[in-house]
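Support reply, case 0932

Customer input (verbatim):
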Amino acid sequence: MKILTNSIPTIKIFFYFLWRDIYVYSKKFHANIINYALLYPLNYAFSFVYLQASIYFKDSSVYMGTLIFAGSIMLPIMILTNTITFALLFDLEQNRFIDYQIILLSPRLVLLERIIFATLFSFILTVPFFPISKLFLGPHLDLSNVSWPALISMLFVGSLCFASYQLLAACVLKSNQIRTFWTRVNGLFITFGGFWIPLEVMTQYSATLGICVQANPALYVTEGIRQAILKSPLFFSIPYCITILLSMSTLFTILSWYFFKKRTDHI
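Our regenerated output:
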């Protein structure tokens, strides 16, 4: 009972910080809905499913367009989680609101709150991605085999993994390294993470490449989403993708705690 009583103020402070982030980002929520829940799916759906698939794949355009389009969800998730988590990096170098937070709450819980909020923020804005695209394209997008519980689970776990990964980067990098980080790390994650090309195709081209890219967390997001939509033996199973992504999320979170502690030890 004493432990529970002592933990109540901590829980209140944790949710206070969570509600603060919700309030701050709610000011731009309508703009984010337009950008990520409407414009992104419409743009990618028309480009990948209708235009490119019709030009390149002819008779198999519906299946191939759906296959390619499924991986495009990775970019909005990556951008959204980056937007939230990298606010910490700028705060560490400028405003230092974080100093106040870690006095009131354990640094680990402060980081955990950031991960939870970034995950929820990304998840909520990307859930409409495929339904909106289906409404726009109709029969040109094949969602006849989709498992919605599996797809929603993959969007949530994918957002969680990207949030913890991006937060780790925010704890390690300096602001003048962001552009280089996007080019050298996130750019590679996108290119070799199944954004355009599934793992099966990369493996057919080069078995070595197929093995190497399995270290990329983005690959398990796109593989799981393609499996949820197309239900094909060509892609990893949903349980396998979720297990890998949760394991990577745990690793990224632990590393974030370590590097965050190094940057705030003076406080």
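We compared this against your earlier run and they match. Two observations from our side: Residues 2-264 form one domain. The chain has 13 helices and no strands. Please reopen the case if you see a mismatch on your end.
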